Amino acid sequence: MQDKHSVGLVKTEYYTFADPPEKFRLENGGKLGPVTLAYETYGRLNRNKSNAILITHALSGDAHVAGIHSAEDKKPGWWDFMIGPGKPFDTKKYFIICSNVIGGCKGSTGPTSVNPETGNPYNLDFPEISIGDMVNAQCHLIDHLGIGRLLAVAGGSMGGQQALQWAVAYPDRVAGVIPIATTARLNVQGIAFDVVGRQAITGDPKWKNGDYLNRGTIPSDGLAVARMLAHITYLSEDSMRKKFGRKRQETNGEADSVADFEVGSYLRYQGESFIRRFDANTYLYITKAIDHFDLTEEYGSLEAAFGLTKSKFLVMSFTSDWLFNTAQSKEIVQALNVGHKDVSFCEITSSYGHDAFLLPNPVMERLITGFLRTLRN
């Protein structure tokens, strides 16, 4: 029996634009085309097209944010508990959209896509992309759907960066913005973790200078290590201690630098599962986009950047998130307050670290439900 609060069976759709010679212009001056975005929608767009909400995903996310793709699907979309009838993003009220970002590897044009000029995957011939490019591509999709103004844009982590970019780049096209566990510019510690992750990938002999797809291999060891490292930053010390502590496990006398502790075995599993669903070059491109995102760089200051905005904001952080910590959210809030913008802020108590926004949390759910009710489009 289908859960009455589930969106049920969903289908991924595809929108292609920027066919040559009318290519998509990138922020670095380059051009790309054609561009395809994979996306999913849930609920119905109302008559005056005023109830559309865009959900933006994090680094390893995709367009499949809710529901299932088949009756045999055991794992629903990555934010399924948030989207559906009676849930915070209530599909009885709202029309929900989520697309895989440009540069992704889940159906949208990225390094794994075929370069029409060569007939081979782009690999490192794919141009550098930015958070701004991701948002500009999403704007093409929103135009395609005939939506003039979004009721809200919401996302966590890199998704929160996209939400902020929407507010600044398209101030007349979004009523409400919900940046969760994010930053307007990643701190040096976060950049450092990404640098090490990229080094793990490019240092893998199977990376083949990025040409591994044409060589019939993948840099699985390097990508797995990058994911293991990143996953540590998504957790908190408290959650790791409660779940694993210093528990050891049997290794049958074999020398194993990873699996002698339970936490090591868990991280190895995370790395091995990641390489089955994500591309190494994509990881390089997207982490660079996260690292280079800095609203102060283009506008001179956060206050100047947010001075352009016309949206209402709901900013949220989590007490145990040390990667995108509360100080980074407060920097956003302070800059908005300087410009007398309509902003609400809450630091939510959670022991789950950065990943807290991906897990059910009654406070987060109530705040989003209430905030959406205040928006007028």
Q: Strand-residue fraction?
A: 5-15%
CATH architecture of the largest domain: 3-Layer(aba) Sandwich
Question: Cα-atom Rg, whole angstroms?
Answer: 21 Å
Mean pLDDT rating? 95
The helix-and-strand class reads alpha/beta
User: What's the CATH class of the largest domain, please?
Assistant: Alpha Beta
Strand order of the largest sheet: 1-4-6-5-7-8-9-10
Question: How would you describe this structure to a colleague?
Answer:
The protein contains eleven helices and ten strands. Helix 1 packs across helix 2, helix 3 runs antiparallel to helix 4 and helix 3 packs antiparallel against helix 7. The protein folds into two domains: 257 residues, Rossmann fold (3-Layer(aba) Sandwich), CATH 3.40.50.1820; 98 residues, Orthogonal Bundle (Rna Polymerase Sigma Factor, Chain: A), CATH 1.10.1740. The model has no long low-confidence stretch (mean pLDDT 95). It is 33% helix and 14% strand. The strands form two sheets. It has an eight-stranded mixed sheet, sandwiched between helices. The chain has a two-stranded antiparallel sheet with strand order 2-3. By secondary structure, the chain is α/β, with parallel strands linked by helices.
